[in-house]
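yo

u said u wanted the structure for the complex thing, so here. seqs first:
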Amino acid sequence: MSTSATAKPVKLTLVDRWSALPKPAQILVWVLIALFFFVLPLMNLPIVSTPDAQFGSVLATVANYALVALGLNIVLGYAGLLDLGYVGFYAIGAYTVGVGGSLHGHINWFVLIIMAVTISTASGLLLGAPTLRVRGDYLAIVTLGFGEIIRLTALNSPWLNQARGITGIPRPPSTELFGLPSLVWDGATAKVDLGDGAKSIFLKFGLLDAVPYYWLALIVIIVVLIADKLLQASRVGRAWEATREDEEAAELNGVPTFRFKLLAFAMGAFVGGLSGALYASRIGSINPDSFMIQLSMMFLAAVVIGGQGNRWGAIVGGVVVAYLPERFREFADFRIVVFGLLLLLLANFRPQGLLPPRRAKRAQRADAATKELEGTEEGARA
Amino acid sequence: MVPLSTFLDLTFTGLVIGAIYALFALGYTLVYGVLRLINFAHSEVFMWGSFGAVWAMTLLGAHSGMNWVAAIGLLIVALVVAMLVSGGVALVVERIAYRRLREKHAPPLVALISAIGASFMLSEIMGLRDRIAGWVGLDGVLGDYVRQARENTSFPNPLPNVQVLAVGGFEIRSNQLIVLVAAILMMVALDQFVSRSRLGRGVRAVSQNPEAAALMGVNQKRVVQLTFFIGGLMAGAAALLYLLHIGVTRYNVGFILGIKAFTAAVLGGIGNIRGALVGGLVLGLAENYATLFGLASSWKDVVSFLLLIVVLLFRPTGILGESLGKARA
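structre next:
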């Protein structure tokens, strides 16, 4: 059976050509892509921009979803753990910033962010240590319960201000250096606007202009992406893959699966808490309703639609889930119906998502080969 | 010290809500027993049944203070409608969310995601029913059935809710008694059906060993459909009893209740029909007794989720253990 895999003519895919490029050229392309995303909110591109909502704030939301999807992708995509209560970590991050910065103290913003990720990672470890021993579908329900417990606790405890939530959450410290030019489009020609149109001030985290938050989220995404890439290519990433594909086989081959699952859970909680903290400091006020379980399902949808196990897929999924409803506001009420339909169709017709990871394709070929073998054996027996 | 009447009251209402959980939990247990999958969309099956009952009663002009004969007649109609609506929705769920994946032997995670998709659609369609009726120009005609799609819809209960028993401060009212008795009767009937009838034997055979069952001439596809349908019927009955007990429903009523019913199923031992009854009653009692320890009643959802986590950690097979197949042959 292995001959059929090797006998295929070697086709140069886009990915192969990309790998053939010299390293400096690759880095240059990455920098250019990153630069494009940094200036995106200033360009007001005709079709891309949202007519009914402030584009900067839409981008900030999209970046937020993409970051969350990256975090959940570690848990679900790499380690194969279905976490339906991911919103719990997001809520913990947001509430930490709210409680420490506004409700019960006035801690420095940077300290708050560190506190938020520490507490959410710790809660990930606390939840994971006992629960990761249960089977996959049970784990899904346990985490669902966890997400609800977090929300209900916030809703019921007076110390967390119950349903009133928290307002006046501190924003990141900002300076005002200079205004940035933006483009104004007249048909297909663009003009650079240096005057009143220069709304975005470098670097003011204010109430009106969400663009700096988008930049902040973008920087965090880039850092997480790099860490994610290094991690996945390392021994840890391979251990996750082995655990996901066949836990018993991995365990027999000397992978301490439980420890690696716990690590994935903690890393996911870290990113979830971080994105929750960034969300809270952008929005400025939170309440338990901001963390309904439906949000968890949206995060899950982002990862599944994008393609579990592929970091670019997660980002694409985050963009799809957050951007499309904003771009097409007229359908906003129906977005959950559409998501339901999308999930249903994807699960049935493209279970691997829009951008499936490369390794999974290889694994699928191996699967197909094994199935074929089993099929012939069964045929022979019959 | 808690007065005895309060304790009795908590016990009785706990048993009533627990019986509803148990009836609802059967859908999870049956589907899990046969397919080894969590039917995440079962909560929406329940929710649609509850609306079926409300609409049937609205259509028939039920109102409070009717005489016993008329009221019971109407309730039986509502029960049949709720059960049929739920059974129908359960069959739809099986068709759109599970059948294709089952035939392709997809991993359980994919089936769960597919069911989540179906659940979202079913609940949001109900939550947008006023808009959907507006599209087809029926919002005027259907006003009574579609208005305020995101709010509570109340159930016109025709039963006179009389006092049956009063001991000191403790009383039992007829509505609660009807709910408890009806739920337990339905469960006994289902248990007998699965353990004695030919169809029930097919269900047990498939849950024990699908391949062997197929070789013995059991139509697996029929059995799976039957399983979903019976689970749906029971959820519909649970929905009507829930309406008698609580009085209102809404488009997302199934979510929390569904998790609790699932908790009940796991607690008793998922895949085990009698386990669902035990689990439901234990969960109902545990929730209510939480208030004895000074917790406000708004914490009781937290108590049931914590109970779920604890049970899964220490006895994942539940109180009675998991086995639909091992039920008495």
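Chain A is about 65% helix and 5% strand. Residues 249 and 273 of chain A are 32 Å apart (CA to CA).
cya
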